[in-house]
Amino acid sequence: MSTAWLDAMPAFAASGINCPDAGIAAVSSENAMITVHHLNESRSQRILWLLEELEVPYEIKPYWRDPRTKMAPAELQQVHPLGKSPIITDDGRAVAESGAIIDYIIRHYGGGRLRPDPSSQDYDDYVYWLHYAEGSASLPFVIDPIAKSFGKMATPLQRRVDHELQLNLGFIDHCLAETDYLLGGELTAADIQMSFVGELAVTFLDTDRYSHLDAWVTRFQARPAYRSALERGGSYRYARQPAA
Ligand SMILES: N[C@@H](CCC(=O)N[C@@H](CS)C(=O)NCC(=O)O)C(=O)O
After folding, report:
1. What is the mean pLDDT of each run of 10 residues along the chain (244 residues)?
2. Residue of the CA atom closest to atom 9 of ligand 1
3. Domains and their CATH numbers in the chain
4. pTM here?
C-alpha cells in the first residue's frame, strides 16, 4: 500500500507510525509510571476510573478543549497522530483507543482483576462489550448532534439516528435487567469501557424507558474509585451528583 499520504501529514511523518502500529507507538519516556493524556470532559475519564479501581499509580497530563470548536489541542498529536483522547504512555510506548488502553492496562497491571477468567464464556462477552462500546454503541451519539445542527434538512438521518439510539439503549437496558453490572454481580472493565455510553444516555436523553441502564449509571458513579477519579480528573459534565 502506498504511504505517500503520510508525507502530507507532519504529525504522522514525525511519529514514524505505520499501519500495523497505529494504536501503539514508540515514544521516549524517562519514567516508568503510566501517564494518562487526559482531555477535559472526555472519554479519558474512564481510564482514570480504571486506574483508581486497580489502585495503579499514574500521572495525568491535562489537555484542554478549544472552547469554541471543542476540539483537542494540536499538542495531543505529538503523543499520537490522531490527537484524540484518551492516550496513555507507559514504558516508552503510547497506547491509543479506549478499548485497547483498557485491555492493555488489564493485561499489564490487572493481575486478574476486573475481568473474567479468559477461558470462560463470560470472557467472550467481556471482549464483546469492550468492542461494542466504541464500535457500535457510541456512533449514534456522535452523529446525533451533527444531524441536529442541520435542522429539518437532516430529518431522514435524524430518524435513523433516533432508531439506532433506541435500539442500542434498549439492548443495553435489557442486558442490565437482572444484574448490577454487565457481566453479573461484580464490576469488570467492560462496565468501565461501556460507562461513557451510559453517561451520554443519561446526560442527553430521557432514560425513563431505560431504568436498568439509568440505575447502573447511578450505581457505578457512586463507587469510591469513580469519585476519586473525578477528583483527580477535574470537571466532567457527565457525572451526576450522588444521592445525599
Ligand atoms: N474511539 C475513540 C474516540 C476518541 C475520541 O474521539 N475522543 C474525543 C474525546 S471524548 C476527542 O479526543 N475529541 C477531541 C477531538 O476530536 O479533537 C476512543 O474511544 O478512544
Report:
1. 47 50 53 90 98 98 96 97 97 96 98 98 98 98 96 96 98 98 98 98 96 98 98 95 75
2. 42
3. 4-109 (3.40.30.10), 121-223 (1.20.1050.10)
4. 0.90
